[in-house]
Design goal:
Blueprint (H helix, E strand, L loop, with lengths): L9 H9 L7 E3 L1 H8 L5 E6 L3 H12 L3 E5 L4 E5 L6 E6 L5 H6 L8 E4 L9 E2 L3 H6 L2 E2 L12 H13 L2 E2 L1 H9 L1 H7 L2 H12 L4 H10 L3 H4 L1 H4 L14 H19 L9 H8 L3 H9 L1 E2 L3 E2 H11 L4 H4 L1 E2 L5 E2 L3 H15 L4 H12 L3 H8 L5 H5 L1
Helix pairs in contact: 6-9, 6-10, 10-13, 13-16, 16-19, 18-19
Length: 381
């Protein structure tokens, strides 16, 4: 059929095994949304009326794959797919029926379901006009309490605006703004950390942080970054501290894309490619390496970019000439970074990586201004 959906190939292995299951099994959420948009998505979420963990282990046994209980209370299991980006979660309905489950989700474009045995767009179940919102590139909450029910969805809304390019409806923006005060009270630090990390790993993390500020969420989840707003600095900087921080995030994202061989529309791309080319394998290995807790080098470098100047508000001085200085902001920033990342439950190794990057971020400038090749001791340090 011409309306076949581009679903994760792993579903081809799962589909025949679930066809004979006594209860209907549905694919839901982002996998359905992205299949309709033609976007790759390797997070497979299946739902069933009951017995989700039992089904998880039965399916894993037949596939010859490991599995574990992800959430005993909510009856959620996960199948691990080694050497693959794919994850498969199976959960019990939120409520008594499929309609209850879809109505308890966050946004209409995520409240779409597909019988796991189906593969065409015609088979998509849409109870909340999600298909119309998908076509209109619109992000809309399902009901007035969609975000208040789980405030981390406010952060997720920002990520979807960035990733999908969708425009939030007015009621969605109101609900997102209202969730700020609930985040620290009701959401675990780990969930906030994970959602912020996903936002930082988008192609436009600078835009994501700016939206957090516009939606009045930044001060609740990253007060150290929010404190940068309105802090001015003098030459050689041409931006205040917060816009400068967002520029650093943007340039870092472009440099990563150059390392990855992706096209970047900037006048300095060719020059940067020439500098980076001999180091591309080592840089790629460094960025892709995982530290304790499963935190990747790429993610931690973006956290470093975001936090590199958080020590400036407390170290700002203004001389009689009007020159603004931030003596010791690197060490002050490293201390604040340690506090923030520990609060967000990063692993000790991950905290040290970002802390040391923040503490040493001025060193390349000092070396460049020295005018001499660095000594062996300096290179080692």
């Amino acid at each position: 059929p011409t309306n076949m959906l581009a679903l994760d190939p792993f579903l081809d292995r799962v589909r025949p095994l679930l066809a004979a299951h006594p209860q209907p099994v549905y694919l839901v959420g982002g996998a359905v949304r992205d299949a309709l948009l033609g976007r790759a998505n390797h997070d497979i979420d299946l739902i069933v009326a009951e017995g989700a963990i039992d089904l998880t282990f039965e399916l894993a046994r037949r596939l010859g794959l490991p599995a574990y209980r992800l959430d005993e209370e909510r009856d959620v299991g996960r199948i691990l797919v080694p050497d693959s980006d794919t994850t498969l979660d199976i959960a019990r309905f939120r409520g008594d029926a499929l309609a209850d489950d879809l109505g308890a989700r966050d946004f209409t474009v995520n409240a779409l379901a597909l019988p796991v045995v189906a593969q065409t767009a015609d088979a998509v179940i849409d109870l909340h006009d999600g298909l119309a919102d998908l076509a209109a590139q619109r992000l809309r909450i399902i009901h007035a309490n969609s975000i208040a029910d789980d405030p981390v969805r406010a952060l997720r809304a920002v990520r979807f605006v960035i990733q999908l390019g969708f425009a939030p409806t007015e009621d969605t923006v109101v609900a997102v703004r209202a969730a700020g005060a609930l985040l620290s009270k009701r959401i675990s630090p780990e969930r906030i950390r994970d959602e912020l990390s996903r936002l930082l790993l988008t192609d436009k993390p600078d835009r994501g942080i700016e939206l957090l500020r516009q939606y009045e969420l930044l001060g609740h989840v990253l007060p150290q970054v929010a404190a940068l707003a309105g802090v001015n600095q003098s030459a050689p900087h041409h931006e205040a501290v917060l816009p400068h921080t967002l520029s650093v995030l943007r340039y870092l994202t472009w440099i990563e894309q150059i390392i990855d061989g992706a096209p970047v529309a900037a006048e300095w791309t060719t020059a940067v490619e020439k500098v980076l080319e001999p180091h591309r394998p080592a840089l790629t290995s460094h960025l892709d390496a995982l530290l304790d807790g499963g935190f990747g080098g790429r993610l931690l470098l973006r956290w470093s970019a975001l936090l590199h100047d958080v020590g400036k508000p407390q170290t700002q001085t203004i001389e009689e000439t009007g020159r603004i200085r931030f003596l010791g902001h690197d060490d002050a920033g490293a201390a604040l970074t340690t506090i923030l990342l520990n609060r967000l439950r990063f692993s000790g190794e991950a905290v040290r990586r970002v802390r040391d990057t923040v503490a040493g971020h001025m060193r390349p400038l000092y070396l460049a201004n020295d005018g001499r090749p660095p000594s062996r001791r300096t290179v080692y340090r």
